[in-house]
Amino acid sequence: MNETRITVHGNVVTEPVERHGRNGSIFTTFRVATTPYRRTADGRFVDGDTSFYSVIAFNALAANAASALRKGQPVIVEGNLSIKQYVGNDGQPRTSPEIDADHVGHDLSWGRASFERVSRAAALGQDRTADPDVQASVRALAEGESAVADQRPAHVDADGVVDDDYDPDAADAARDDAGGVLATGDPETDDYEVVERLTA
Questions:
Q1: Beta carbons of 8 and 77 less than 8 angstroms apart
Q2: Would the pTM count as exceeding 0.85?
Q3: Is the pLDDT of residue 158 over 90?
């Protein structure tokens, strides 16, 4: 199959829109405008005609493009070019160049951007472990940090076992900033009553 490869340097002229296909796949569409320029005999630069391209990206590229790109930003798009024909609102036949994108990125010759690597599952919203709080907890666990252990009450050991002989009136009882006892008793064996949460 013959394909026409194209690389376009231009500006995003519509806000990227992320959509879901009928089969659940993600795709993102946006428009890119590019204006060539040339130097005249007297040394001046003049703009040529502006060309507009519809860009469509799929799957992880689509999710990342929708998250990272904004209208007005300079981008570089690489993909397969096709010319679509359709009938406009005025009933006249029209053509539109469309790029099925394989690569999309900011054009750093015009500014700065930061890069954040995410997995394909995270980009598509399928990775529950990608949550920053979850990642921070896992990193702390892997590095042996004891932040969680340091926050447990004095009468609860590292395995979560509660000391039944704990005396909340003792001088070494674990207390919060207001002086209240953090926890007493064993929630698995002691009687307790459910108290509704008070709202402000």
A1: yes
A2: no
A3: no
